[in-house]
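User
Take a look at the entry that follows and flag anything odd:
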Amino acid sequence: MRAGKWLKSARTGWTEAERVLAADAQNLIRPAVRAGEKWADLGAGSGTFAAALSALLGPSGAVLAIDQDARALHQISAVVGGAPVQTLTADFTALPPLPPQDGLLLANSLHFVKSQSVMLERLRGLLQPSKVLIVEYDLERGSVWVPRPLSFAKLQTLCAELGWPAPKKLAEQPSRYQWAMIYSALIAWVES
């Protein structure tokens, strides 16, 4: 589904900037997502990637958007012909058990987590996903906006230390917010 098919939901419509971000989000995650799957978007914020998941999963899929900011979650909507999106106000670093998911998406959220390895191991134990999709800035040094960057090289090292499958870089593009590239990487326990 193209970005032009985004739902004009409770909001009055999508701005051109939102359409561009929507297309970017879909391009980053498209290779990992299959129609009809169930995904949780951890640290969903106002829903750029939750909406991208909704569009790619289609009506037989499901999205669970999780963030501790209830006001941000209130902005999230599904897309026309897309998967329904449910929201849960919670800190994704301290989640209770959730229904089984086909995948977990952490898009621009791990760079806010102090102990990324502990966080990932906790998620693996809690949710038993078949795949984890990471979208992060490919930076080595932190900033105000990306306090604890997770470069692709660092993600590879982290996965090796956890005994996880090696991450596969799926896509990469220039960031619209940082002077860096943003990448998506899939960690899969099953063939996807």
About this structure: Strands lie at 38-42, 62-67, 85-89, 103-107, 131-137, 168-174, 181-188. The CA atoms of residues 63 and 85 lie 5 Å apart. The chain has one domain: 3-188.
